[in-house]
Amino acid sequence: MSTEPEPGLAPEHTRPCYAEDPIVMTVDGQNFRIRQRAETPGGYDFDWLSGPHDYGFGITRADGCAMALPEMEEAIRNFLAEIDPATGYLKE
């Protein structure tokens, strides 16, 4: 019986940060720069590069795990859904 670990994916809570930090992601024609906060595990800043204002949002996962790219895309879509097209800011 082998005591060597079997190959596979690391548990989610031990996933490393993305090598490309920051990363740039385009979602629904809008460009965002995503930076992981070094001092906050599971914390990210999303800068809206193609928006009408210097604007963005932040997310911190309670479990401290790294976000997967599909999660980042969903977070961006949720943010964009809350933007008032007339002002370019969050709806009131």
Key terms for this structure?
alpha+beta; four-stranded antiparallel β-sheet; globular
- The fraction of residues assigned to DSSP E strands is 25-35%
Radius of gyration (Å): 16 Å
The tally of structural domains comes to 1
Oligomer: single chain
Question: Mind describing the biggest β-sheet?
Answer: 4 strands, antiparallel
First and last CA, distance: 62 Å
Quick recap:
The chain is an alpha+beta fold and 92 residues long. It has one helix spanning 69-81, and strands spanning 23-27, 30-36, 43-48, 55-60.
Detailed description of the structure:
The chain is built from 1 helix and 4 strands. With 92 residues, it is an alpha+beta fold. The protein has one domain. A hairpin with a 2-residue loop joins β1 (23-27) and β2. The longest helix is centred in the last third of the chain and has 13 residues, at 69-81. The radius of gyration is 16 Å and the shape is globular.
